[in-house]
Amino acid sequence: MEGNEIRALIEEKFSNAVISQHDFRGDDTIVLDRKVLHDVLGFARTDPGLDFDLLVDICGVDRSEMGLEPRFAVVYHLVSTRHRHRLRLKFPVPEDDPVVPSVTDVWVGADWFERETYDMFGIRFLGHPNLKRILTHEQFEAHPLRKDYPVNRRPALKPIPADILTLKPFKG
């Protein structure tokens, strides 16, 4: 199946949710409403003609400096190892409600990608089994890949609870 056929199949099935689609240098991309994110990714994984069995990456994008609204997007890079085709799916996410559904039930490997996107951009994944920071300290209060993060600032940390600061003798 060629890229234009893949895009046509997904557009036919999710016609009300497709915002745009394009092919640039062999990379097929579809931009969809986040309301169908889980359904689209489940379809891409299970449809025999698509069979996107490999989730290569999930990443966040802060589009604020590009002048695009909504501010964020979550991007999924998929590969079918059997059919040897690739697809990029983008889902715009508003700054005031940075939430999308988790796809850890579709690809177990989404776990770490979703945690990284949450940590770096603050986009939450509903239904994720263990959504916590993965690259920064758990007391870190900001999201370093947001365009408004001040690069020269010392990281702000939440106060450490007093009981953690109390040293207890080791009994070994």
What would your notes on this structure say?
The protein is 22% helix and 27% strand. The chain is elongated, with a radius of gyration of 19 Å. Strand 1 (18-24) and strand 2 (27-32) form a beta hairpin. It has 172 residues and is an alpha/beta fold. It has 4 helices and 7 strands; from the N terminus they run H-E-E-H-E-E-E-E-H-E-H. It has helices at 3-13, 37-46, 110-121, 162-165; strands at residues 18-24, 27-32, 54-62, 72-80, 85-93, 99-101, 124-126. The strands form 2 sheets. Strands 1-2-5-4-3 form a 5-stranded mixed β-sheet. Strands 6-7 form a two-stranded parallel ribbon.
Descriptive tags:
172 residues, 5-stranded mixed sheet, two-stranded parallel ribbon, 22% helix
SS element count, helices: 4
Q: Write the H/E string, N to C.
A: HEEHEEEEHEH
- State the strand order across the main sheet: 1-2-5-4-3
Q: Compute the average pLDDT.
A: 91
Find the structural class using helix and strand composition: alpha/beta
Record the SSE blueprint.
Elements: H1 3-13, E1 18-24, E2 27-32, H2 37-46, E3 54-62, E4 72-80, E5 85-93, E6 99-101, H3 110-121, E7 124-126, H4 162-165
Parallel strand pairs: 2-5, 6-7
Antiparallel strand pairs: 1-2, 3-4, 4-5
